[in-house]
Records
---
Amino acid sequence: MKIFFIILAAGKSRRFKSKLPKQFNIYKGKMVLEHSINKAINSKIFEKIILVINKSHLKYIRKFKNKKIHIVYGGNERSISSLNALYLNLVLMSIFLSKWTILPSLNFGS
Protein backbone atom coordinates (compact mmCIF):
# COMPACT_ATOMS: atom_id res chain seq x y z
CA MET A 1 0.00 0.00 0.00
CA LYS A 2 1.26 3.50 -0.84
CA ILE A 3 0.83 6.13 1.87
CA PHE A 4 1.06 9.85 1.13
CA PHE A 5 1.62 12.62 3.69
CA ILE A 6 -0.36 15.81 3.07
CA ILE A 7 0.79 19.06 4.67
CA LEU A 8 -1.62 21.99 4.41
CA ALA A 9 0.69 25.03 4.54
CA ALA A 10 -1.18 27.57 2.41
CA GLY A 11 -2.36 29.77 5.27
CA LYS A 12 -1.41 33.42 5.58
CA SER A 13 -1.15 33.33 9.41
CA ARG A 14 -3.00 36.61 9.93
CA ARG A 15 -3.42 35.99 13.68
CA PHE A 16 0.27 35.11 14.14
CA LYS A 17 1.31 38.77 13.97
CA SER A 18 4.53 38.24 12.05
CA LYS A 19 5.77 39.42 8.67
CA LEU A 20 6.39 35.79 7.77
CA PRO A 21 3.64 33.17 7.87
CA LYS A 22 4.27 30.92 10.88
CA GLN A 23 5.14 27.85 8.79
CA PHE A 24 8.20 29.72 7.46
CA ASN A 25 9.43 31.11 10.79
CA ILE A 26 12.63 29.65 12.17
CA TYR A 27 12.42 27.26 15.12
CA LYS A 28 15.56 25.49 16.35
CA GLY A 29 17.49 26.53 13.25
CA LYS A 30 14.92 25.40 10.65
CA MET A 31 11.62 26.60 9.26
CA VAL A 32 8.66 25.14 11.15
CA LEU A 33 7.53 23.54 7.89
CA GLU A 34 10.95 21.99 7.40
CA HIS A 35 10.68 20.12 10.70
CA SER A 36 7.49 18.39 9.51
CA ILE A 37 8.88 17.62 6.07
CA ASN A 38 12.07 16.12 7.54
CA LYS A 39 10.08 13.97 10.00
CA ALA A 40 7.94 12.64 7.15
CA ILE A 41 10.95 11.90 4.93
CA ASN A 42 13.01 10.33 7.71
CA SER A 43 10.12 8.11 8.83
CA LYS A 44 10.37 6.17 5.55
CA ILE A 45 6.64 5.48 5.88
CA PHE A 46 5.46 7.82 3.14
CA GLU A 47 5.84 7.29 -0.58
CA LYS A 48 5.22 10.97 -1.36
CA ILE A 49 4.69 14.23 0.49
CA ILE A 50 2.05 16.56 -0.89
CA LEU A 51 2.81 20.11 0.23
CA VAL A 52 -0.05 22.57 -0.23
CA ILE A 53 1.16 26.18 -0.31
CA ASN A 54 -0.02 29.64 -1.23
CA LYS A 55 1.33 30.69 -4.65
CA SER A 56 2.89 33.77 -3.06
CA HIS A 57 4.94 31.55 -0.71
CA LEU A 58 6.77 29.64 -3.44
CA LYS A 59 9.95 31.66 -2.80
CA TYR A 60 10.18 30.20 0.73
CA ILE A 61 10.12 26.56 -0.33
CA ARG A 62 12.48 26.54 -3.29
CA LYS A 63 15.14 24.95 -1.07
CA PHE A 64 13.12 21.73 -0.70
CA LYS A 65 14.66 19.64 -3.44
CA ASN A 66 13.41 16.12 -2.87
CA LYS A 67 11.73 13.84 -5.38
CA LYS A 68 9.25 12.77 -2.69
CA ILE A 69 7.83 16.30 -2.33
CA HIS A 70 5.05 17.41 -4.66
CA ILE A 71 3.85 20.99 -4.52
CA VAL A 72 0.23 21.96 -5.06
CA TYR A 73 -1.28 25.43 -4.70
CA GLY A 74 -3.95 26.03 -2.13
CA GLY A 75 -7.23 27.82 -2.67
CA ASN A 76 -8.93 30.79 -1.04
CA GLU A 77 -10.37 28.49 1.62
CA ARG A 78 -8.84 25.59 3.52
CA SER A 79 -11.43 23.23 2.05
CA ILE A 80 -10.26 24.09 -1.48
CA SER A 81 -6.63 23.54 -0.46
CA SER A 82 -7.57 20.12 0.92
CA LEU A 83 -9.42 19.21 -2.28
CA ASN A 84 -6.44 20.28 -4.38
CA ALA A 85 -4.20 17.97 -2.33
CA LEU A 86 -6.65 15.08 -2.60
CA TYR A 87 -6.93 15.61 -6.35
CA LEU A 88 -3.13 15.41 -6.70
CA ASN A 89 -3.18 12.33 -4.47
CA LEU A 90 -5.66 10.68 -6.84
CA VAL A 91 -3.58 11.61 -9.89
CA LEU A 92 -0.39 10.25 -8.34
CA MET A 93 -2.11 7.12 -7.15
CA SER A 94 -3.54 6.46 -10.60
CA ILE A 95 0.08 6.48 -11.79
CA PHE A 96 1.08 3.96 -9.11
CA LEU A 97 -2.09 1.89 -9.69
CA SER A 98 -2.38 0.84 -6.08
CA LYS A 99 -4.56 1.45 -3.02
CA TRP A 100 -4.20 4.76 -1.19
CA THR A 101 -4.59 5.92 2.35
CA ILE A 102 -5.12 9.44 3.65
CA LEU A 103 -3.57 10.25 7.00
CA PRO A 104 -4.29 13.40 9.00
CA SER A 105 -2.16 16.36 7.97
CA LEU A 106 -0.57 19.03 10.11
CA ASN A 107 -2.18 22.45 10.31
CA PHE A 108 0.16 25.25 9.28
CA GLY A 109 -2.64 27.46 7.94
CA SER A 110 -3.91 30.72 9.34
---
Amino acid sequence: MVDLTKKKIVSSSAKYKKMAAVLVPSFSFTLKQISIYYGIPIFTMGVIGAFLNIIVFLSLRIFRENSRAFYLMITSTSDLGRFFTVTLTTIIKLWIWNRFESIIIIHL
Protein backbone atom coordinates (compact mmCIF):
# COMPACT_ATOMS: atom_id res chain seq x y z
CA MET A 1 0.00 0.00 0.00
CA VAL A 2 2.77 2.42 0.84
CA ASP A 3 4.49 1.77 -2.46
CA LEU A 4 1.38 2.62 -4.44
CA THR A 5 0.97 6.02 -2.79
CA LYS A 6 4.62 6.82 -3.38
CA LYS A 7 4.24 5.96 -7.05
CA LYS A 8 1.21 8.21 -7.33
CA ILE A 9 3.10 11.08 -5.72
CA VAL A 10 6.10 10.57 -7.96
CA SER A 11 3.98 10.33 -11.07
CA SER A 12 1.97 13.43 -10.21
CA SER A 13 5.13 15.41 -9.42
CA ALA A 14 6.63 14.29 -12.72
CA LYS A 15 3.49 15.49 -14.47
CA TYR A 16 3.78 18.90 -12.80
CA LYS A 17 7.45 19.13 -13.73
CA LYS A 18 6.56 18.50 -17.36
CA MET A 19 3.86 21.17 -17.22
CA ALA A 20 6.30 23.59 -15.61
CA ALA A 21 8.88 22.85 -18.29
CA VAL A 22 6.33 23.88 -20.90
CA LEU A 23 4.78 26.86 -19.09
CA VAL A 24 7.86 28.60 -17.69
CA PRO A 25 9.51 29.43 -21.05
CA SER A 26 6.23 30.70 -22.51
CA PHE A 27 5.56 32.74 -19.37
CA SER A 28 9.07 34.18 -19.52
CA PHE A 29 8.62 35.09 -23.19
CA THR A 30 5.28 36.74 -22.42
CA LEU A 31 6.79 38.83 -19.63
CA LYS A 32 9.61 39.95 -21.93
CA GLN A 33 7.11 40.97 -24.62
CA ILE A 34 5.03 42.93 -22.11
CA SER A 35 8.16 44.66 -20.80
CA ILE A 36 9.16 45.68 -24.31
CA TYR A 37 5.81 46.83 -25.65
CA TYR A 38 4.62 48.57 -22.47
CA GLY A 39 8.08 49.93 -21.77
CA ILE A 40 8.24 51.91 -25.02
CA PRO A 41 5.14 54.08 -24.29
CA ILE A 42 6.23 54.52 -20.67
CA PHE A 43 9.66 55.63 -21.85
CA THR A 44 8.32 58.11 -24.41
CA MET A 45 5.72 59.60 -22.07
CA GLY A 46 8.26 59.83 -19.26
CA VAL A 47 10.83 61.61 -21.40
CA ILE A 48 8.24 64.04 -22.74
CA GLY A 49 6.94 64.72 -19.23
CA ALA A 50 10.41 65.27 -17.80
CA PHE A 51 11.30 67.68 -20.63
CA LEU A 52 8.06 69.60 -20.12
CA ASN A 53 8.73 69.84 -16.38
CA ILE A 54 12.21 71.19 -17.00
CA ILE A 55 10.91 73.72 -19.53
CA VAL A 56 8.21 74.93 -17.13
CA PHE A 57 10.56 75.19 -14.17
CA LEU A 58 13.16 77.10 -16.18
CA SER A 59 10.85 79.42 -18.12
CA LEU A 60 8.51 80.84 -15.48
CA ARG A 61 9.92 83.52 -13.23
CA ILE A 62 7.98 82.28 -10.21
CA PHE A 63 9.69 78.92 -10.43
CA ARG A 64 13.16 80.37 -10.99
CA GLU A 65 13.00 82.41 -7.79
CA ASN A 66 11.61 79.64 -5.61
CA SER A 67 14.07 77.22 -4.01
CA ARG A 68 11.51 74.39 -3.98
CA ALA A 69 11.17 74.65 -7.74
CA PHE A 70 14.93 74.16 -8.01
CA TYR A 71 14.59 70.82 -6.24
CA LEU A 72 11.69 69.86 -8.52
CA MET A 73 13.81 70.72 -11.55
CA ILE A 74 16.64 68.56 -10.21
CA THR A 75 14.13 65.75 -9.67
CA SER A 76 12.89 66.10 -13.24
CA THR A 77 16.47 66.03 -14.52
CA SER A 78 17.25 62.89 -12.52
CA ASP A 79 14.04 61.28 -13.80
CA LEU A 80 15.12 62.06 -17.33
CA GLY A 81 18.50 60.48 -16.67
CA ARG A 82 16.84 57.42 -15.16
CA PHE A 83 14.60 57.00 -18.17
CA PHE A 84 17.60 57.04 -20.49
CA THR A 85 19.85 54.84 -18.38
CA VAL A 86 17.52 52.27 -16.83
CA THR A 87 14.32 52.10 -18.85
CA LEU A 88 15.83 52.45 -22.32
CA THR A 89 18.65 50.00 -21.63
CA THR A 90 16.17 47.46 -20.25
CA ILE A 91 13.99 47.76 -23.34
CA ILE A 92 16.97 47.43 -25.67
CA LYS A 93 18.41 44.50 -23.71
CA LEU A 94 15.11 42.60 -23.78
CA TRP A 95 14.55 43.39 -27.46
CA ILE A 96 18.01 42.16 -28.44
CA TRP A 97 17.71 39.07 -26.23
CA ASN A 98 14.36 38.17 -27.82
CA ARG A 99 15.88 38.49 -31.28
CA PHE A 100 18.83 36.22 -30.44
CA GLU A 101 16.59 33.80 -28.57
CA SER A 102 14.34 33.38 -31.61
CA ILE A 103 17.37 32.87 -33.86
CA ILE A 104 18.78 30.24 -31.52
CA ILE A 105 15.43 28.41 -31.35
CA ILE A 106 15.08 28.44 -35.13
CA HIS A 107 18.57 27.04 -35.73
CA LEU A 108 18.24 24.28 -33.15
---
Amino acid sequence: MTATPFLCEVVDVDDRMVVIIHGEVDIATAPSVLQYLRPALGLPPGGLAVDVGNVTFLDSSGVHMLLTMRRAAVDQRVPFTLLSITEPTRRVLEVCGLSELFGLEPPTRS
Protein backbone atom coordinates (compact mmCIF):
# COMPACT_ATOMS: atom_id res chain seq x y z
CA MET A 1 0.00 0.00 0.00
CA THR A 2 1.45 3.37 -0.98
CA ALA A 3 0.97 6.52 1.03
CA THR A 4 -1.08 9.39 -0.36
CA PRO A 5 1.37 12.05 -1.55
CA PHE A 6 1.27 15.25 0.48
CA LEU A 7 -0.35 18.14 -1.36
CA CYS A 8 -2.09 21.42 -0.49
CA GLU A 9 -4.47 23.29 -2.75
CA VAL A 10 -5.98 26.73 -2.17
CA VAL A 11 -9.34 27.54 -3.73
CA ASP A 12 -11.76 30.44 -3.35
CA VAL A 13 -15.28 29.24 -2.56
CA ASP A 14 -17.92 31.93 -2.06
CA ASP A 15 -15.37 34.51 -0.84
CA ARG A 16 -13.88 32.02 1.59
CA MET A 17 -10.38 30.67 1.13
CA VAL A 18 -10.34 26.89 1.40
CA VAL A 19 -7.05 25.05 1.90
CA ILE A 20 -7.46 21.42 0.88
CA ILE A 21 -4.90 19.09 2.42
CA HIS A 22 -4.07 15.67 0.96
CA GLY A 23 -1.91 13.06 2.67
CA GLU A 24 -0.16 12.98 6.03
CA VAL A 25 0.08 16.06 8.27
CA ASP A 26 3.01 15.45 10.58
CA ILE A 27 6.25 17.05 11.71
CA ALA A 28 7.59 16.94 8.15
CA THR A 29 4.55 18.45 6.40
CA ALA A 30 2.84 20.74 8.95
CA PRO A 31 5.22 23.67 8.18
CA SER A 32 4.26 23.39 4.49
CA VAL A 33 0.57 23.64 5.37
CA LEU A 34 1.30 26.82 7.33
CA GLN A 35 2.88 28.30 4.20
CA TYR A 36 -0.50 27.96 2.48
CA LEU A 37 -2.62 29.05 5.42
CA ARG A 38 -0.82 32.18 6.59
CA PRO A 39 -1.22 34.18 3.34
CA ALA A 40 -4.91 33.23 3.21
CA LEU A 41 -5.45 35.13 6.49
CA GLY A 42 -4.55 38.40 4.76
CA LEU A 43 -7.23 38.00 2.10
CA PRO A 44 -10.77 39.40 2.30
CA PRO A 45 -12.47 38.35 5.56
CA GLY A 46 -14.92 35.90 4.04
CA GLY A 47 -13.26 33.24 6.13
CA LEU A 48 -10.63 30.56 6.09
CA ALA A 49 -11.50 26.89 5.91
CA VAL A 50 -9.23 23.87 6.07
CA ASP A 51 -10.57 20.79 4.29
CA VAL A 52 -9.11 17.75 6.05
CA GLY A 53 -11.21 15.16 4.20
CA ASN A 54 -8.16 13.80 2.39
CA VAL A 55 -5.83 13.78 5.40
CA THR A 56 -4.61 10.24 5.92
CA PHE A 57 -2.67 10.87 9.14
CA LEU A 58 -2.63 13.68 11.70
CA ASP A 59 -0.05 13.79 14.48
CA SER A 60 0.57 16.32 17.26
CA SER A 61 2.43 18.61 14.84
CA GLY A 62 -0.66 18.69 12.63
CA VAL A 63 -2.89 19.41 15.62
CA HIS A 64 -0.53 22.21 16.68
CA MET A 65 -0.66 23.65 13.16
CA LEU A 66 -4.48 23.68 13.25
CA LEU A 67 -4.47 25.35 16.67
CA THR A 68 -1.94 27.94 15.49
CA MET A 69 -4.02 28.83 12.44
CA ARG A 70 -7.26 28.93 14.38
CA ARG A 71 -5.67 31.32 16.90
CA ALA A 72 -4.28 33.55 14.12
CA ALA A 73 -7.70 33.64 12.43
CA VAL A 74 -9.48 34.50 15.69
CA ASP A 75 -6.94 37.24 16.40
CA GLN A 76 -7.63 38.76 12.97
CA ARG A 77 -11.39 38.22 13.28
CA VAL A 78 -11.42 35.86 10.32
CA PRO A 79 -13.90 32.96 10.59
CA PHE A 80 -12.04 29.63 10.74
CA THR A 81 -13.68 26.31 9.90
CA LEU A 82 -12.61 22.70 9.50
CA LEU A 83 -14.33 20.90 6.63
CA SER A 84 -14.85 17.26 5.65
CA ILE A 85 -13.64 15.86 8.96
CA THR A 86 -13.05 12.14 8.67
CA GLU A 87 -13.54 9.76 11.57
CA PRO A 88 -9.78 9.25 12.19
CA THR A 89 -9.17 13.02 12.27
CA ARG A 90 -12.20 13.51 14.49
CA ARG A 91 -10.84 10.91 16.92
CA VAL A 92 -7.46 12.67 17.14
CA LEU A 93 -9.16 16.00 17.90
CA GLU A 94 -11.49 14.36 20.44
CA VAL A 95 -8.59 12.63 22.25
CA CYS A 96 -6.85 16.03 22.41
CA GLY A 97 -10.00 17.55 23.95
CA LEU A 98 -10.49 19.91 21.00
CA SER A 99 -13.95 18.91 19.74
CA GLU A 100 -15.70 21.92 21.22
CA LEU A 101 -12.94 24.37 20.24
CA PHE A 102 -13.21 23.33 16.60
CA GLY A 103 -17.01 23.15 16.76
CA LEU A 104 -17.23 19.45 15.98
CA GLU A 105 -20.70 18.01 16.16
CA PRO A 106 -21.01 14.84 18.23
CA PRO A 107 -20.95 11.81 15.93
CA THR A 108 -24.33 10.37 15.08
CA ARG A 109 -24.79 6.90 16.45
CA SER A 110 -27.22 4.50 14.85
